[in-house]
From TrEMBL:
Full protein name: Aromatic-ring-hydroxylating dioxygenase subunit beta
Record-level Gene Ontology MF annotations: oxidoreductase activity
InterPro entries on file: NTF2-like_dom_sf, Rng_hydr_dOase-bsu
Provenance organism: Pseudonocardia hydrocarbonoxydans
UniProt xrefs under Pfam families: Ring_hydroxyl_B
Length: 175
């Protein structure tokens, strides 16, 4: 997001929050993952818990993904720079964001709720199992946003998949 034009720097309206989420979705769909990393604050968490009521920092719950800064950067590096059989050919994704709501939280954090639908497909030929199949990942997403160096940044992205307690297919792409 660009620098604020007016108003309190600790507030964010629904339209601006939706624009932020839409930009994140576009960066993911276009595999501009280095730019996507730039949306995160240095201390941010990217998290897909199994338990919908889990709280970060409790370490009592199993997660599909629980990435701090180093782990998130490693994941992006592997996706962009190393040959991964599970991403050859790379996934094509479509991230759809809806039902955006904003509420202030404590200590300058703005909490943004949304529903997210991610469609993922990998093309290929008949010799590659599972290719051409569309996988759909639907979930409730919470973004905690903070101001960092004059920009809104993600402090936490928590995506609770509707199918979180079922078998989950290949997640070697970004949700």
């Amino acid at each position: 997001m660009s620098a604020p034009t007016a108003g309190d720097l600790t507030t964010l309206d629904v339209a601006a929050a939706a624009a932020f989420l839409h930009r994140e979705a576009r960066l993911l769909d276009e595999r501009r993952l280095d730019e996507w990393l730039g949306l995160f604050a240095p201390d941010a968490l990217y998290w897909l818990p199994i338990n919908a009521d889990a709280e970060p920092g409790t370490h009592r719950d199993t997660s599909l993904i629980f990435d701090g800064d180093v782990r998130r950067r490693e994941r992006v590096y592997r996706l962009l720079s190393t040959p991964l059989p599970s991403q050859n050919p790379p996934s094509r994704t479509l991230h759809a964001v809806s039902n955006v709501e904003v509420e202030p939280a404590a200590d300058g954090v703005v909490r943004v709720y949304s529903n997210q639908l991610v469609v993922e497909v990998r093309t290929g030929d008949h010799t590659q199992r599972g290719l051409g199949t569309q996988n759909i990942f639907a979930g409730h997403c919470t973004h905690d946003l903070v101001r960092h160096e004059g920009e809104w940044r993600i402090r936490m992205k928590k995506l609770v998949l509707l199918t979180r307690d079922a078998a989950v297919p290949n997640l070697t792409f970004m949700l």
